[in-house]
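Quick one from the shared queue. A colleague (R.T.) flagged mRNA (guanine-N(7))-methyltransferase as missing a structural entry in our internal table.

Convert sequence to structure tokens.
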Amino acid sequence: MVGYNKYKSYNSESGDEVYYMAEVVQLLLDRAPYGVLVQLLEREDESTSSSTNLEKKTALVRKSELSPVVASLRLGEIVRIYRIQTKASYKLEAKLAPARIWKEIEDPTNEEEISPTNGMKPLLILDLNGVICDRGTYASRRHDRNSVTRPYALDFLSWCFANFEVAVWSCGKRENMELELFQGRTIVFAWDQTRSTSLWPRCSAVSADKPLFLKEIQHVWKPRKFQPPAITGKKKSETKIIGPDAMSWRRAATQPPPVPAKTPPPPRSFGPQDTILLDNHYEKFERNQVGNNIIITTWTREESSDTALARTGTLVQLLTKYTTVPDAAAFGKEQALEILPDPAPDAYVPGAKLIALAKEAQEDLVCGKKEQKSTSPRFGGNADTEDDTDISRILIERYCASETHQKACPEYTATRYLKTRDSPGPRARPLRRRDLPLITEEGYALTEKTDGERGWFLACERGVFLLRRDLTLAAKLLKKHQFLTRSTTILDGEMLFEDKLFVVFDAVRVLDEDIGADGSNGAPGRLSLAAKKLKIQGTGINVGAWRVAAKRYWTIDDDDLQTIARQVSSAGAFVDESRANQSDGLILTRLDDSDYSGYYASQCFKFKPIITLDIRLVGLSKWFDHNRKIIQAMLSAKKGSNSFTLPAIDAAVAGERGSELIISSVMVPGDKLCLLFDSSGNLVSTKPIAECVYENGNWFLVRLRLDKRLPNSIRTAWAVLESIADRLSVDQVLDAMQSGRVAAHYDKIQRKRKTQTLMDEAMYRLRRLNNLVKALSLETAINFYNSTTHSCLFNLHRAKSYEHESTQQVLETLRAPVTEELRRNFKTKRGRRAVVVELGCGRGGDLGKWKQSIEIDKLVAVDISTESIAEAHSRWKKMVRTGDHEFVQADFAAPGFSVRLREQLLKQKSADFIACHFAMHYAFGTSERLAELLDAISSSLSNGGIFLATIINWTELYAMLESGTSIGDLCSVSASPQSIAAMAKLPLNDAIPHIAGIQYTFSLGDAVEECDEFLIHTPTLQALAKQRGLSLMLAQPFPDFLVEAHTRDPTAFSKLAADMGVRPKNTDNNKDPLSEDQFRVASLYAVLIFRRDTDYKENEISSPSTLTAEAEEWTPASLIKQSS
């Protein structure tokens, strides 16, 4: 075996890195050794001493994730390499070195400019994030800091280096720049935000938390010059690779080429005639002349089919023209667009008008530029007479005076907020599918999203006021109040001007108390404390002409949670005993904000089942002129039809792209036409803001938002467009909250167990009996895995199997005391190493059984409880100190888990065994969760692989609910009358498509305390599994399964029962035998074993021919409806 003792590295005698320039001479990217062969040309720095001269030798540069550039290298390309090493076979290997950068020179002399017409390449300056790669948002980079390269980016860079001198200019920090994409190559410069012009306090349209940086292209031009590296004295190779199939790494030279002396090239300056700046944001070009700037569409990692950087794309075609013209600026002005076509191209030269409009929109968005105050009756009568500057200063300074705010957000000062006219505090971001695991892992509460305008309630010595998010004054409610104006109160909420209602959903300060710092109970706790202090429970309190009411938060423990959530989602309105108002969605907020410094940095999400967006109708006048006759006819007839839709109106949203029509048009239903005109038939406004709804691929007018001054920002627009492709249902949101409750439940039990020294005596033998069944089922699963038998055993419906004579014989064996040493000696069975996945692993009690039964190549253990998975990991590390294992806290039925299991946890390996003991019922909450779990199992199992599960037998569960709801003091079960009636209608043998959501509440000793679970209808599970290539091999209740094992080998069964601790050890008084109640509880469960078909092909799910013909009437909703 080759050892590391023959490894040699070529460094200078001082230990410094040695860099060589090398020529790519052969591409071996698709075959071993997977890389490129380079011929070393010359040392980069001859001043460093080294005893070895490697010139003319050949080295291998391997392709890897850390060197993505290798795959894009071309034959004959000159690259920079380092870390040259000789491996054991005396072959050279090297790595691509960091990019070599030209030397920058400040030269005030006025020498003749060098242009592309003199045979020099023009300069192409590239941006990184959003152009070449996607760095992700700051929130996503907290957990994953890996950038994702844009499709075709590496090939595009190779093309750029062949046709341009390339430079990099990013407005990010140096350490965040993806310079590894330029490994081995030479670039003119690599500038970061320190070389950009900051316009603080103006903020970027990309993020209100970032200053606006400009890339002033004139800083690149004279008098600044750049010194290229010394010209490499290389000669085109006249040699060939020797050896069979040209695979030898040695190189034979026909004749040693002469080594010419290095000649230092003259410094080069650039100017408008030979410089092109590529970026994805208009705002960076604010001070640049037209012609030298190119805009490319922003790319995010979700857009896997993007072709903007392809060689056949618009950008490469445009840049190709730049390489052939003598004056880039003049050519760019000819190509500049002042109005974008529909659809807009992927890349283009923006004209002066587009840049100016973008600047105006950006200033409006960020700086909160004031408009003339409206006299609309939605304002309080005294708003126009009050100086809102002083009031906003009071609000912000007292907000920022909190000690907790200063600790949590010290960089967010009062001066900053006042300059940018932006409100502090958390903002709810759209709930995405990727956020559901967070809802599951951490406790969240839910409330309705009032369809009003977000604002502040401020009470101070100056009076009681309402302020908008841009800190302008909306209304003055009172000059004095009996107790509010004696101290400071700051409340966060929604303003409903028509109803004169302020709805509070969180509190910052109440009567001078800084309750915003209390994160232990989150927003619900702070709001409850504020409502109690201000006495605004129930319908609220009257403050002047306005009413102030407090929202209510619901948790998963509230019985009416699902009713409220579905009411808001379907009807778009909220109604309770305190108020009734329009509502356009739900808000989810953490129950515990202590990790986020309370209110000041809390985290919340918004869920909108109906996709809406506030858009400015910029083309309303033109639209009216084109359709004047038909509009006037409809207005004069005073009628409109919802089935009739007028031609679309041009529309836009505010943001970084200015007048580029992100939302290109809005349709106007006939019955909404009257909203655009007053009683005289004139337009209400030439550019009003309209709330629009997305339906069937189009945006439709819903109403005008005269209470808003600005449309939604570009960031909001992109988020809304993303939500269209990432639609969530209210059931998925509620299911995530339910999963979070389950996680909290088992975390609580695990913490309780850690504090107890003794286990519940009533559960002792039951746990050991369950362990016996799982050990036997594991042996059976291994036998199925190692055999090709197709025999199946199903007898789940034998009534009261625990009372049969054969079962009683087994029970006598299990109660028989251990009279001699009969302990079974476990020996690990040798054979092919197996990959094992344990879903719902709990505290890891079954991991030892796996270790004793098979050799484990890789183990993946998943559980929803943080406390339990930590305990399981600790147990495993004590049993196996090394090895490949993954312990993950996750919901195994959450959206996306199947992909995560296959690609991230198993890393494309196939599992031989997947087990899920006593936990599968949590996947039956919705059809989507059940499908996700079955997809995860099917796609992760190898052909012939085994899925093993222990579940509650639904027929036994139903019988228990019918005859009695408890088994002694050990176990109890309850369900609603609707659920019981739905169970009664389930067929014994026929499958029902999409059966999920039949809920019951289960308690079992100290293991399960009133936890909501969902019924598993075994025939449906069998049919859905079969569609995914999983054949049911065994389905038996625990009693019958034990009888089968006892009959097969009574002696081995008795020994295993003793070893598992089921049989008592005390022979004097037969202490603590297995009781009737314990065995009766075990009889509720059943063993299922599935095997993945060897001829099953993924993505070819067969039609559900095994499902009953009366499928549609056998849905949970219809069952419960019939039962009601």
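The domain at 123-221+269-326 is CATH 3.40.50.1000 (Rossmann fold).
The first helix runs from residue 138 to 141.
Added to the table.
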